[in-house]
Amino acid sequence: MSTINECCHGHNTQKIEQTKVHCPVCNTEGISVSKVTVEHLVTDDYLKLVDGEQYKICMNGDCSVVYYNVDNGVRFLKEQVKVPVWFKKDADPKYACYCSEVTEGQVIEAVVKHGAKTVKEINAITGAMKNPNCKENNPLGVCCHKIIQEAIDKGLKME
Residues in domain CopZ zinc binding (predicted)? Predict the structure, then answer.
């Protein structure tokens, strides 16, 4: 839902109403994530706060919120999660494959130095996707294939 308002300079602005599917801090629409993923990735100090089933991950790289619950308002920030989330600002290391701890830099290096062009070639060179447990290790709770492909694309642009 949105409404049109006028800002102090006389321009029309659109005010977006907060909804449960949007991040409570930045209002970016989140992507559904399994409670299992959240339970495995929040730090032990915050594990007892994981309650409810409806979790989302904030996809805004500049926002400090990683996970939020649409039912009870619980949210977990970057520093409350065990791993750096690759698309969040200042993620270090920036993993392409969480299960095998392969970084985006390693994927790009495999492309630039070894000529890898496919996910299969990256897997052979770096060991990515050898120990799959994505639901528990990847912050999105899904296979890292897409993240690896994005890193390959970055590497191909550098050639």
Answer: 21-82
Polymer length of the chain: 159
Closest CA to 39 of 48, 27, 30: 48
Q: What is the mean pLDDT of residues 102-120?
A: 97
Q: What DSSP assignment string belongs to 79-91?
A: GGBSS--TTSTT-
In a domain, 7, yes or no: no
Q: Looking at the domain assignment, is residue 69 inside a domain? A: yes
What are 14-72's pLDDT values in tens digits?
A: 333 445 689 999 999 999 999 999 999 999 999 999 998 999 999 999 999 999 999 89
Listing DSSP states for 5-63 in one string gives EE-TTS-EEEEEPP-TTB-TTT-PBPEEE-HHHHHHHB-GGGGGG--SS-EEE---TT-
* Cα–Cα distance for residue pair 156/159, rounded to 1 Å: 5
Assessment of whether the complete model's pTM goes beyond 0.85: no
Rounded to whole angstroms, the Cα distance separating 100 from 63 reads 26
Mean pLDDT score of the chain: 88
Q: Which domain, by its residues, includes 46?
A: 19-80
